[in-house]
Specification:
Elements: H1 2-29, H2 32-49, E1 58-63, H3 65-71, H4 78-91, E2 95-98, H5 109-121, H6 126-138, H7 141-152, E3 155-163, E4 185-187, H8 189-192, E5 200-204, H9 208-213, E6 216-219, E7 223-224, E8 230-234, E9 236-239, E10 242-245, H10 247-256, E11 263-266, E12 270-273, E13 276-279, E14 285-287, E15 299-301, H11 302-306, E16 319-324, E17 332-333, E18 341-342, H12 343-356, H13 365-384, H14 390-413, H15 421-443, H16 445-454, H17 459-466, H18 469-472, E19 475-488, H19 491-497, H20 500-520, E20 524-529, E21 532-537, H21 546-570, E22 578-591, E23 600-603, H22 605-615, E24 626-629, H23 630-636, E25 640-648, E26 657-665
Parallel strand pairs: 1-15, 1-16, 2-3, 2-16, 3-6, 4-11, 22-24
Antiparallel strand pairs: 3-5, 7-8, 8-14, 9-10, 11-12, 12-13, 17-18, 19-21, 19-22, 20-21, 22-23, 24-26, 25-26
Helix pairs in contact: 1-13, 1-15, 4-7, 5-6, 10-12, 13-15, 14-15, 20-21
Length: 676
């Protein structure tokens, strides 16, 4: 008996060593799926901690749905933005930071009219030409906004960078003169053996009049993790050899009255804002310590400020971030607290972190502690579990993991991110390995063998068991995709006039052609709804040109129906007429079925709009019988030709929707007619 016990003990220790080797190998390889899992565990710390009060010195002016209804669709005229700046100036805002790109000039109607009159006069009357020039200057929206920025003298405007996919390996050489707010003092990453900051291949700066009038600049680039969530802020991004601060960093610097030359970079350690050290990683990233979910920082409606209905006390001496929060403005992000989070609120959180000196860090020594846990936890379980029965063994393992998570959460509350995935994996795999070993060799081997041979499992159940459980779990994610609906006109009348066998045969031929087209364009056939076809493009594979693919598929469907019509008429058969609708927008994508039935589909208001567009073919005289939404047109306009049909009130919508007839594909270079 003693010999058998020693053998079991040594085998258990051998299992623990094997687990250490396997988990250690994964720790070294660092596969992305485990990194994503670590990020999800990190998010749980925020949810467990809950929301905390917003920083009193930070405010958000929201360009929300009510503001758009009051002042027109987005983007607003620069004259409205100028009025907003002047009202914030009058209220005594310490700094105004815009999360609104101003990279293209705006030409007012008066300017266009003056230009047309000048062209017709041909400069014959100098007095008239001078007056027209004066009118054009006074009606210049950009000039009005620039004047408001100069009068305020404390406005931060945004930069948007096109980031390089591959980090640079050499110290970037400076090219040309730096733009406003560039950080010129830094300790080279080469001196510390660090990787460089994010490198920009291109940059979108404010137009020159606004650039000159702004007090400072700050980039608004978001850095999503592999799962799409935004957890980091890049305090600086390199472009043409210069480093440009984030919007939050520039806003706090300006509010504190710190000279731009007092901002210094030390790669892998800190970004110094005067005497304040902000801890960063090698790429100049800092974790955003979010105060809470959407709305933790109260949103002051821009329309209320423009109407003069906001007390100046709510804005006086505050760092005010101005940004769009309305649905459809596409500035919504995924964060640890919420899957739909305004980007402007992320900047506000980062500014509050800097003001408070509150940061979440992950020091290098944490990885050493992680490696120690990978070794120690399996050995501890190998010593303890053999003396316990399976039930208590599970409780001990669970208690150990609970203690591990509780310690990590306590550290998180103190601003320290302690990783959990690899220690947890070592713990779980060791428990499972030892438990399976004991089941197979000591306790339930005969019962398990007997049950395995006596039970009968149907092939369907076996197939389901073999599938990835994660793929069967219920849930979806919010993604921007394109949905297509097609329907046969007067199909009910057709079925009444023909035998069921004929209807089925014709429908099969038609649906086969339609399905082939959807799949050829990389789409996903969602379902057949009687004679209707529903398909989506951009899910599950996130093609960037999903809107163009949907349009190509719609045109190919109409062409295929014309071919089938010629064939059926030649055979003496009655042809079909179809209508199609295509819409692009944010939809919930995923397994949205039940526990009994797997159903990968899309749902949401934008899906309903796609179906409504298809139905509009009954109300419009169109040649292609394809109606697309404005969102689809904007996403695919470089590759398609379309005719505006105007605005319509669609059932279920409170505001008119702009619709287009899809006419065809463009012949411009770039592969507009290319399929999957």
């Amino acid at each position: 008996m003693a010999s058998a016990a020693r053998t079991r003990r040594w085998r258990t220790l051998g299992l623990a060593v094997a687990v250490i080797v396997v988990v250690g190998g994964l720790f070294w390889a660092a596969p992305q799926f485990l990194h994503v899992l670590e990020l999800k565990l990190y998010d749980q710390h925020f949810r467990l901690r809950g929301a905390r009060p917003a920083h009193a010195q930070v405010a958000i002016v929201a360009i929300d749905g009510a503001s758009l209804r009051a002042h027109g669709r987005w983007p607003w005229s620069r004259t409205v933005m100028a009025d907003l700046v002047r009202r914030l100036t009058a209220a005594g805002a310490a700094v105004v930071a815009f999360d609104v790109l101003l990279i293209e000039p705006e030409v007012s109607g008066e300017q266009r009219a003056a230009a047309r009159i000048g062209e017709r006069l041909g400069g014959r009357d100098r007095a008239v030409a001078a007056e027209l020039a004066r009118i054009a200057r006074e009606a210049d929206p950009d000039a009005r906004l620039a004047a408001a920025l100069r009068d305020n003298a404390r406005v931060v405007l945004p930069i948007n960078f096109v980031l390089s996919v591959v980090p640079r390996e050499a110290v970037p050489e400076r090219q040309g003169a730096p733009a406003k707010s560039a950080i010129v003092a830094f300790k080279s990453y080469a001196e510390r053996g660090m990787f460089p900051a994010f490198h920009a291949d291109a940059a979108e700066f404010p137009i020159p009049p606004l650039l000159d009038a702004a007090a400072a600049l700050g980039h608004v680039n978001m850095l999503p993790d592999p799962d799409g969530a935004t957890r980091y802020d890049a305090l600086a991004i390199e472009s043409r050899g210069y480093y440009y601060p984030s919007l939050a960093l520039s806003a706090v610097r300006l509010a504190a009255g710190i000279d731009p030359f007092a901002v210094r970079i030390e790669f892998g350690r800190a970004v110094w804002l005067g005497d304040v050290a902000i801890p960063v990683d090698a790429r100049l990233r800092v974790l955003v310590d979010y105060a809470g979910p959407t709305g933790t920082y109260p949103h002051i409606r821009a329309a209320e400020i423009l109407a003069g209905r906001v007390s100046p006390e709510r804005l006086k001496d505050k760092i005010v971030f101005v940004g769009a929060t309305a649905e459809g403005t596409y500035d919504l992000r995924v964060t640890p607290f919420s899957p739909v989070y305004p980007g402007v609120e992320k900047h506000a959180n980062m500014a509050a972190n800097i003001l408070d000196g509150r940061f979440i860090v992950r020091p290098v020594w944490v990885e050493l502690a992680e490696a120690v846990a990978i070794v120690a936890l399996p050995l501890l379980l190998a010593l303890v579990l053999p003396a316990l029965r399976p039930g208590p063994s599970a409780l001990v393992t669970l208690a150990l993991w609970g203690a591990l998570f509780a310690g990590a959460h306590a550290a998180f509350r103190q601003g320290l991110w302690v990783p959990l995935v690899y220690p947890s994996l070592a713990l779980v795999v060791t428990f499972v390995a030892i438990t399976i070993y004991r089941i197979l060799t000591e306790e339930l081997q005969r019962r398990w063998t007997k049950r395995a041979f006596q039970q009968y499992v149907s092939p369907e159940v076996v197939e389901r068991i073999m599938q990835d459980p994660a793929g069967l779990s219920f849930g979806g994610e919010l993604r921007t995709v394109t949905v297509l609906f097609s329907d046969i006109r007067d199909f009910t009348t057709f079925t009444e006039k023909h035998d069921p066998q004929v209807v089925v045969q014709r429908l099969r031929e038609y649906l086969t052609r339609m399905t082939d087209i959807v799949q050829k364009e990389g789409g996903t056939l969602d379902k057949y709804i009687g004679d209707a076809v529903m398909a989506e493009f951009g899910a599950p594979i996130a093609y960037p040109d999903h809107a163009l693919r949907g349009c190509r598929a719609a045109l190919a469907m109409t062409a295929a129906v014309e071919q089938l019509t010629d064939k059926w008429r030649a055979e003496g058969k009655e042809p079909f007429r179809i209508g199609l609708g295509v819409n692009t927008g944010a939809m919930v994508v995923g397994n949205l079925g039940s526990e009994q039935l797997f159903d990968y589909t899309v749902i949401g208001d934008e899906v309903n709009l796609g179906a409504r567009l298809e139905a509009l073919n009954k109300e419009y005289e169109t040649t292609t019988h394809v109606i697309i939404s404005e969102a689809t047109y904007e996403a695919a306009k470089d590759g398609i030709e379309a005719r505006p049909l105007g605005e319509v009130m669609v059932k279920g919508k409170t505001r008119p929707v702009v619709v287009y007839e899809l006419l065809g594909l463009t012949t411009t270079p770039g592969g507009a007619t290319r399929s999957a």
